[in-house]
Specification:
The protein is mainly α. It has 14 helices and five strands. The radius of gyration is 18 Å and the shape is globular.
Length: 295
């Protein structure tokens, strides 16, 4: 099957088969998503992921793309290209297709490129592949390294796109320029959603993952299927609806504490559940032997 056809099905019809200076979910959120995903991999996917990661655990591999932001190995690549692959910008009131694209690529384009690499398909031309050529040179000379890079970055993006402000507005840099107070601490809206809301629970990633796994077990199978198999463009539109609520709340207040936590911590937890389910579904669609659309 040609890459363009497969990627079209995988990314645009996923139900039949997924801020400028926006830092990703904090480590705890990515670890929770990774742990939830690990529980739902097919044996074929588990084996393929283990081979590519070469000893790294899936959950900890979700952190790698953030850890590399300060890498000394070709730092211009990490700042000029890869920093843009953690998010997409959506024009307020618009959608991804109608929004001008980042000339250095974005998370959605990176998903397509990394999926193609993992499928051993032709890599689509564009800014992401251009950036990777800056970093690696010829892909065919370093296939093992390129696949490991692709899988680790893909794992991270699959989590990032569940954080609503990673499908945010360029005008405020995904909430980075919106100042708020959190229990008296000055911060910004993006940081609040990246780490502070989840940290408010004072639970470890393992504890949160266990509780959310139990929640998934109580969720009707049809609802699980709907969450996991939604395509990435749908994820972005879900984020837009959350942003509507988020910005409406901010319009009336910028000093947040218990009431804000009560309103939005459940949303964060739902996004973590979706992230775990969608990461597993995405990987199983690539590696797990699932015919597209028939998990």
């Amino acid at each position: 099957m040609k890459c363009s056809l497969f990627i079209h099905k995988l990314l645009f019809l996923f139900a039949l088969c997924a801020s400028t200076e926006a830092y990703a979910w904090g480590a705890k959120a990515h670890l929770v998503i990774g742990k939830l995903a690990e529980e739902r991999l097919t044996p074929a996917t588990r084996a393929a992921v283990a081979e590519i990661l070469a000893g790294d655990e899936l959950a900890t591999a979700t952190l790698w793309a953030d850890e590399m932001r300060q890498a000394q190995d070709k730092p211009e690549f990490w700042t000029r290209y890869a920093a843009n692959w953690h998010y997409v910008n959506i024009t307020q009131g618009g959608d991804y297709d109608s929004t001008p694209k980042n000339p250095r690529g974005d998370a959605y384009e990176a998903l397509q490129t990394f999926a193609a690499i993992l499928l051993d398909e032709h890599v689509p031309a564009g800014p992401v592949s251009e950036g990777l050529e800056v970093y690696f040179g010829r892909f065919d000379l370093r296939p093992v390294e390129v696949k490991r890079f692709a899988l680790k970055f893909l794992l991270h993006i699959l989590g990032d796109l569940q954080q609503p402000l990673h499908s945010g507005y360029a005008s405020d840099r995904g909430g980075n320029e919106i100042d708020v107070s959190w229990f008296g601490q000055r911060t910004n809206l993006h940081s609040l959603w990246d780490t502070l809301l989840l940290d408010r629970q004072q639970r470890s990633a393992d504890e949160i993952a266990r509780r959310l796994n139990e929640r998934i077990g109580r969720t009707p199978a049809s609802d699980v299927r709907a969450m996991e198999s939604a395509d990435p463009l749908t994820w972005m539109m879900e984020s837009q609806r959350t942003l509507d609520r988020m910005y409406a709340t901010h319009a009336g207040n910028t000093d947040f504490s218990d009431a804000y936590a009560a309103q939005f911590v459940p949303t964060v937890e739902t996004q973590l559940v979706k992230g775990g389910l969608r990461t597993a579904y995405f990987l199983n669609s690539i590696f797990g032997g699932w015919p597209v659309g028939n998990p």
